[in-house]
């Protein structure tokens, strides 16, 4: 059987074409152009091309919609434009269930269209369900989905898009919807034996029951946006847990961490705000997460949560840490009592990304990372703090057993040429220096003696213009 036949093709195009882009908008025109070229050069009709080849073309020109925080999974749109070209193209698209496995349900549901879409998706392929929050209150929609529950591989709850209030014609704003725990239980409290991905974005939850019990034995990745409901799922194999722009209690975070501590591999907290914290550490357990290799901690700071995630929780196999304030913001107060309590023995990449970081946080985390290979230097509130950070890095590199034997790459955010020379001299193992984000205050000339020294002594100097 041909690998691209309707019954055997299981993949989707790797070419990500976003909506409203010139490429996606001209898909049909491009295909017609291909048809004309083939007809003119070969003397044969485009109709003679095998269906399997046309399917392949359609897959590689399929529009994929990119959403934030959906684990890199995109929503594929069935090639409706191709269906309008001719009867043969329409029949090809309709007959192949792979074009119909991504199901979009918005706030106003056309039940006839939904049922037709599900019918075209066949009876066997896994489905990805993309919902707006308003759809959770629709009982008829749920009744249509229930027969396919055992085929659902992903549920992605997205915010409702509405026209903005700034009198522009094309701007959209996202709105979170109010749903009850009962609504949520109706949708994801049912047995979903093959669900692997669950993203609940833009969710405002209220009402009873206080906890939703889930039957998700194969769930691998879960993330939350806005309010975080309380779930209980006794069979857990979660490998990814994310809290994105979320409002959450310290106690609830501890429950989720405890529940998946033996299986979790990736932890992401981006823009988390605590709603019940009175003192750092209150209600948060001490845990060991033996399999976490990647952590992203980008939060406002000041409430003690950022420090607790690195002190109360141990990550013996952590390889990559991205740490900082929420992008574009300044990190809150850093608690000096945490000094010396951070231990990241196997950390390979330390990326201080996001907003402006306190120099104390930089010092304490750097002390706990003994053998990093790559360091992304953060931004600081003043040149004085940056000077302290450079001094700390130079001192750290000279300590026995520290990163001077492993640190090979530095991203020199905010550093001037003199500072970078100090860093290069202190790190004999350094091979790559990224200066694209280096300081250029005062119109620093990049062909000065200092910059020429860097060119001569750094094996791979990135970003020098």
Question: How would you describe what is shown here?
Answer:
The protein is of the alpha/beta class and 465 residues long. The protein has helices at 22-25, 27-42, 51-60, 80-83, 87-95, 111-120, 139-145, 181-188, 250-259, 305-311, 359-368, 383-397, 417-426, 449-457; strands at 64-65, 75-76, 102-105, 127-132, 152-158, 160-163, 172-175, 177-180, 197-206, 212-213, 221-227, 231-232, 240-248, 266-270, 273-274, 287-288, 294-298, 313-314, 320-324, 349-351, 374-376, 409-411, 432-434, 460-462. The chain has a 16-stranded parallel β-sheet that branches. Strands 1-2 form a two-stranded antiparallel sheet. Strands 6-7 form a two-stranded antiparallel sheet. Helix 6 (111-120) packs parallel to helix 7 and helix 11 (359-368) runs parallel beside helix 12 (383-397).
Briefly summarize what is shown.
By secondary structure, the protein is of the alpha/beta class.
Pick out the low-confidence regions: 1-26, 169-175
User: What fraction of residues sit in β-strands?
Assistant: 15-25%
Average pLDDT taken over every residue: 79
- Derived structural class: alpha/beta
**Beginning-to-end CA distance, first to last residue:** 54 Å
Helix content: 25-40%
* Total helical elements: 14
**Rg from alpha-carbon coordinates:** 26 Å
What's the total count of β strands? 24
Q: Which overall shape is indicated by the principal axes computed on the Cα atoms?
A: globular
> For the report, how would you describe the main beta sheet?
16 strands, parallel
């Amino acid at each position: 059987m041909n690998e691209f036949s309707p019954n055997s093709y299981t993949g989707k195009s790797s070419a990500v074409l976003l909506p409203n882009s010139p490429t996606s908008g001209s898909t049909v025109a491009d295909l017609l152009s291909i048809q004309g070229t083939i007809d003119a050069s070969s003397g044969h009709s485009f109709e003679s091309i095998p269906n399997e080849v046309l399917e392949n073309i359609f897959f590689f020109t399929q529009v994929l919609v990119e959403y934030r925080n959906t684990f890199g999974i995109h929503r594929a749109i069935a090639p409706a434009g191709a269906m309008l070209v001719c009867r043969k193209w329409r029949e090809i698209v309709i007959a192949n269930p792979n074009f119909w496995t991504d199901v979009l349900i918005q706030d106003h549901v056309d039940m006839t269209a939904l049922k037709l879409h599900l019918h075209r998706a066949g009876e066997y392929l896994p489905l990805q369900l993309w919902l707006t929050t308003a759809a959770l209150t629709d009982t008829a929609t749920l009744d249509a989905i229930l027969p396919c529950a055992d085929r659902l591989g992903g549920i992605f709850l997205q915010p409702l898009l509405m026209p903005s209030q700034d009198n522009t014609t094309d701007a959209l704003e996202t709105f979170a919807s109010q749903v009850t725990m009962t609504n949520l239980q109706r949708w994801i409290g049912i047995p979903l034996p093959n669900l692997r991905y669950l993203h609940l974005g833009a969710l405002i939850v209220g009402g009873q029951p206080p906890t939703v019990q889930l039957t998700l034995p194969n769930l691998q990745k879960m993330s939350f946006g806005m309010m975080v409901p309380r779930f209980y799922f006794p069979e857990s194999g979660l490998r990814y847990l994310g809290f994105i722009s979320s409002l959450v209690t310290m106690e609830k975070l501890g429950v989720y961490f405890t529940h998946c501590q033996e299986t979790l591999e990736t932890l992401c907290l981006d823009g988390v705000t605590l709603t019940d914290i009175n003192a750092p550490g209150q209600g948060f357990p001490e845990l060991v997460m033996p399999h976490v290799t990647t952590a992203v901690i980008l939060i406002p700071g000041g409430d003690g949560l950022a420090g607790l995630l690195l002190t109360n929780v141990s990550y013996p196999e952590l390889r990559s840490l991205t740490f900082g304030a929420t992008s574009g913001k300044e990190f809150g107060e850093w608690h000096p009592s945490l000094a010396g309590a951070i231990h990241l023995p196997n950390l390979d990449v330390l990326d201080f990304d996001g907003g402006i970081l306190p120099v104390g946080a930089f010092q304490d985390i750097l002390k706990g990372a003994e053998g990093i290979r790559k360091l992304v230097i953060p931004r600081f509130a003043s040149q004085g703090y940056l000077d302290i950070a450079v001094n700390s890095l130079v001192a750290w590199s000279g300590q026995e057993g520290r990163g001077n034997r492993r640190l090979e790459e530095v991203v020199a955010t905010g550093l001037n040429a003199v500072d970078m020379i100090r860093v290069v001299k202190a790190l004999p193992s350094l091979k790559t220096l990224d200066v694209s984000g280096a300081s250029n205050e005062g119109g620093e000339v990049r062909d000065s003696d200092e910059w020429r020294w860097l060119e001569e002594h750094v094996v791979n100097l990135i970003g020098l213009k």
